[in-house]
Amino acid sequence: VINGVNNVIKEQKITDLLIGLEDEKGFSASFSHNLYNGYLQNDNVNVIVYHAAQPLSTIKKYAVIIPENAHKEAGFFHALLRVWNIGRNSGATVVFYAAENILNILQRILKKANIEAEFIIMEKWKDGEETASQLQEDEALILFMAKRGMHSYIPRMRLIPELLNKSLPDKNYLLIFPYSEYNENNFEKRS
User: Fold this and answer.
1) What letters, b where the CB count within 10 A reaches 16 and e where it falls short, cover 64-98?
2) CA dist., res. 33 & res. 27, Å (int)
3) Contact 48, 124 (CB under 8 A)
């Protein structure tokens, strides 16, 4: 299945692969294996993992956690556009947790493309994990992730599936793995 998906991604020049998690299962061992050893092996596509536990219309706030150096990834701004569209189209407040230099970039973007946003400096990745585990009702999580070898990879990221299964089984969350290589021949097609 994974090889078939990767072939379609190449043939159709797909830029984003959205994978939905089953509500009851969350991150199973087999899904985690397929994610890390299959879908994430394609360096030219954003892989987005979505867990829906409540209707989107009930989400009032999104906590967006961005690791240090994420802005150095080839696919960061492409992935960030997806987050910006969620904020713009949902009307929810988007609270960004990131290093100060990334928050400065986000504030400059906000001046050009306005959404309801707040910015909180995140000193360590562990602070983001604590924020994620303390989401309130009607809040959702968006987490920028990275594969091993990327600028923004943090070894603790391997613990995220377990954290989400344990702390957020009843919450919506979105994990975004930005692409790590830019293919100049791979232009996004819109229909």
Assistant:
1) bbbbbbbbebbbbebbbebbbebbeebebbbbbbb
2) 10
3) no
pLDDT, tens only, 86-104: 999 999 999 999 999 999 9
Model pLDDT, residue 189: 46
Phi, psi at residue 166, to the nearest 5°? -80, -45
Q: What is the DSSP string of 129-172?
A: HHHHHT--TTEEEEEE---TTSTT--GGGGGHHHHHHHH-TTS-
- pTM of the shown model: 0.86
Give alpha helix (H) positions in the chain. Answer: 2-12, 29-37, 76-90, 100-112, 125-133, 160-167
Q: Which residues of the chain have pLDDT under 70?
A: 1, 30, 33-34, 36-39, 41, 182-191
Report pLDDT for 191: 36
Rounded to a whole number of angstroms, the distance between the first and last alpha carbons of the chain is 25
Task: Confirm if 177 and 147 have CB atoms less than 8 A apart.
Answer: yes
Structure tokens at 105: 């970039």
